[in-house]
Amino acid sequence: MVDEMMWSMGQYVLSAVYVATGRVVHGGEFTAEYPSRPFTWPKKTDEELEAEQMEKELREALRNEELYIAHATAAGLPKSNQA
């Protein structure tokens, strides 16, 4: 998140310097403008971020369960009959 913020801040500063320098050097002939909307627009909503986090946690839990099963099988433990 911090990297994204720093990258976007750098993009805004670069755009501002470009527009200001162009207007000073070229005067009225320069037509570039500062960005009218955020570069990363539209941003993800809190619900989308929460859903992604839940999905990530579920994948991690499933991976841990698969590792547990693999270690138990390698150790010679019998399979469970539960579904």
Provide an overview of this structure:
- The protein is mainly α.
- The longest helix has 29 residues, at 46-74.
- The protein has 2 domains: 1-43, no CATH class; 44-77.
- The two termini are 40 Å apart.
- 65% of the residues lie in helices and 0% in strands.
Overall pLDDT level = 82
Shape: rod-shaped
How would you characterize the largest beta sheet? none
What structural class do you assign from the helix and strand content? Answer: mainly alpha
Please give the alpha-carbon distance between the first and last residues: 40 Å
Percentage of residues assigned to helices: 55-70%
Low-confidence stretches: none
Strand proportion = under 5%
How many H/I helical runs?
2
The total of beta strands comes to 0
**Structural domain tally:** 2
Using the CA coordinates, give the radius of gyration: 26 Å
Helices and strands, in order, run as: HH
State the gist of this model:
This protein has helices at residues 2-26, 46-74. It has 83 residues and is mostly helical.
Write the layout of secondary structure elements.
Elements: H1 2-26, H2 46-74
